[in-house]
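Re: [ENG-882] Designed sequences occasionally contain unexpected residues at chain ends

Forwarding the minimal case from QA. Structure tokens:
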């Protein structure tokens, strides 16, 4: 997702303009924001700063984005000197020491891999490469190719030691495309909180971490319909994270079927029945990982899982347009809200 129009979840336009005066008290403060290309997308931070604190907010936002640049250099599988790339290069050979940040990200990822029984799996890279090439060639991969890729996939083969990571099967690779942006958004949010800013949105390419409000006005986010450019719903959100996975952007049409880019790492095949999933959680990494894991699980298993987890909600949009959601959500007349 490289353009704001492609985001499945985004802050609405009224919260994107800098220096917005809040009705009733024009001198109360304003929004200070900045954006930077990171992790293959655009990261944006918007802070509601009390009057007089705007320069401090500007400086803290810049520092937070600088720290995210450093974080990307540690966790990216595309940068050859990153800790992730070093772990991948040593697959099947030896454990590799990693930074505390990458170790924390791996711990979170492994927890969600277990809770989703492998529907979320950070080792699915070989499958994504295979299906990416299939989309470019506009032809389905062979069953033999899928089986071969599956031999290099499996979170059970990721071993976390004392500050080290070991991929026990040769050819395995870590990739954090389904959790890294949310994790980075959490990092930026922690930076803002530590600097005594409580009202902000961190937008990690459409994965949002939302805190407080903009003055007395709640932050509003919009959820795009997976089959159109229109909004499916809007939602007022605070002190939460929201992320979406969808098949709207990358897909292969073959044999009269639509094969999206989200792969079930247990079978090696794309999910066909779900169009998008919206996940709401307390942390960005959790929402990010859940959006993908729930997409793979489907509404029956996915909602059953969500109902067991405190402060987590989910909305499924199926390929036939029907909606399914957890008990704590309601959607009516284009408004999505938490009801418990």
């Amino acid at each position: 997702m490289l353009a704001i129009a492609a985001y499945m979840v985004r802050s609405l336009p009224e919260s994107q303009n800098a220096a917005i005066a809040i009705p009733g008290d024009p001198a109360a403060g304003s929004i200070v924001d900045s954006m930077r290309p990171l992790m293959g997308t655009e990261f944006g931070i918007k802070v509601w700063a009390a009057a007089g604190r705007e320069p401090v907010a500007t400086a803290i936002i810049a520092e937070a984005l600088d720290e995210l640049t450093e974080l990307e250099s540690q966790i990216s599988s595309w940068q050859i000197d990153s800790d992730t790339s070093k772990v991948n290069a040593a697959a099947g050979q030896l454990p590799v020491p990693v930074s505390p940040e990458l170790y924390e990200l791996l711990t979170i990822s492994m927890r969600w891999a277990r809770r989703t029984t492998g529907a979320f799996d950070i080792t699915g890279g070989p499958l994504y490469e295979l299906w990416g090439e299939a989309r470019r060639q506009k032809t389905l991969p062979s069953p033999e190719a899928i089986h071969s890729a599956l031999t290099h996939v499996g979170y059970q083969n990721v071993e976390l030691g004392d500050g080290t990571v070991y991929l026990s099967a040769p050819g395995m690779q870590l990739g954090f495309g389904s959790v890294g942006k949310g994790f980075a958004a959490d990092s930026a949010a922690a930076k803002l909180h530590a600097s005594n800013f409580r009202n902000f949105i961190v937008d990690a390419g459409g994965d949002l971490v939302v805190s407080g409000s903009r003055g007395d006005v709640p932050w509003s986010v919009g959820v795009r319909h997976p089959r159109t450019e229109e909004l499916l719903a809007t939602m007022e959100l605070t002190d939460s994270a929201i992320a979406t996975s969808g098949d709207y952007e990358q897909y292969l049409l073959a044999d009269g079927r639509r094969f999206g880019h989200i792969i079930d790492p247990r079978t090696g095949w794309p999910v066909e029945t779900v169009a998008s999933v919206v996940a709401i959680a307390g942390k960005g990494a959790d929402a990010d990982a859940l959006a993908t894991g729930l997409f793979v699980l489907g509404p029956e298993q996915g909602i059953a899982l969500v109902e067991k987890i405190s402060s987590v909600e989910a909305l499924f949009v199926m390929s036939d347009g029907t909606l399914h959601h957890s008990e704590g959500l309601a959607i009516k007349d284009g408004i999505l809200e938490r009801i418990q």
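QA comment: On inspection the terminal residues look reasonable. Confidence is low (pLDDT under 50) at residues 1-7, 13-24. Proposing we downgrade this to a documentation issue.
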